[in-house]
Amino acid sequence: MSRLTMDNGIVLPPGEDGVPTDPGHCYDRVPRLLGAGVPSIAQRTLSRRQVLRGGLALAAGVAVLGPRRVLADALQERTRWAFLSDTHIDSDPDDRYRGFHPYRNLQEVTGQIGYDLPDGLVITGDLARLKGQTAAYQNLKTLLGPVIEKRPTYLGLGNHDMREHFLQIFADRADTPEAVENKHVTAANAGPVRLVVLDTLFHVNRLAGLLGWRQLAWLETFLQRCDDRPTILFLHHTPRTGLLDSSELFDIVGRTGKVKAVVYGHSHVCGFSQYQGVHLINLPATGYNLQGGEPVGWVEAKLTGRDGEFILHCVGGSTDLDGRTTKLRWRA
Ligand SMILES: [Zn+2]
């Protein structure tokens, strides 16, 4: 069986008619492993030209927003992303909470991001305020418009999101069927790293989060089949304390060395810690803080195959740590 080895050492198994398939798109057999009732994932075969161009990112689920052709090149050594969480956009653009104005905060943040566009954007849920009204997602779409038009954008869901309303507004950007039934999961190879955005939304407007067995099974298979590039998981809920099946998640993470970091929001607290050698990165909220001493803003991430550099940008709350850079080395 012939195989194609790319310049960067990636070995591509041949697809139909010898055309290489995307090495990162290794979840095509997941539906069979998960059993009946799980919708199949569209298998996408890239043309040889597309593969050689290096644009290897593919979504596992609904809606990678924005033009994927600008996703970090597979041969690129570093990729730069904007990580946000808890934007809490309301149906009323003038909504304020705890003295913060989430709509204006996100306007300011997208302005900062747009000034020097990164390779892409991830938001780890609680996109909307409270119950995820359709008009809130319309407002979010408007605010993110300038970024979505130019860069791939991955939106995760939190406990203040409503999956159906979210999909109503963003479905026109959907390009693949869902990977996990009733969950919004996306994955992409972004140059030297892989990004996987999971869905921990369990009950709208209640605190606890849940991945669920189908998503966990999908994740385990996905991680088994993907290449060895460092993988970062994104989810809304705080691992260990806010996620009901956190131990099941870390059982899976523990069985592979591929996952180097878990990025999340939910607490509206900014912080870095470690669990079982995996970096836990708690993003600040963009909408508002829940404690006066916490920053409100976003994180600029510079990622390589060996490490990550995380720069805090504040637009409100405590701005003492504005510009602080945290460097993390990936576990072996
Ligand atoms: Zn929140």
Summarize the structure.
With about 325 residues, the chain is of the alpha/beta class. The protein is about 20% helix and about 20% strand.
Folded structure, characterized:
With 332 residues, this protein is of the alpha/beta class. 21% of the residues lie in helices and 22% in strands. The chain is built from 7 helices and 14 strands. The chain has helices at residues 30-34, 48-53, 102-115, 134-148, 163-170, 213-225, 246-254, and strands spanning 4-5, 11-12, 79-84, 120-124, 153-156, 186-190, 193-197, 231-234, 259-264, 271-275, 278-282, 295-303, 307-317, 325-329. A 6-stranded mixed β-sheet has the order 5-4-3-12-13-14. A 6-stranded mixed β-sheet has the order 6-7-8-9-11-10, with no helix packed on it. The chain has a two-stranded antiparallel ribbon with strand order 1-2. Helix 4 links the parallel strand 4 (120-124) and strand 5 (153-156). Helix 4 packs across helix 5 (163-170). The relative contact order is 0.16. Mean pLDDT is 80; it is low at 1-63. Zinc ion (ZN) is lined by residues 86, 88, 126, 160, 266, 268, 285. Zinc ion is lined by residues 86, 88, 126, 160, 266, 268, 285.
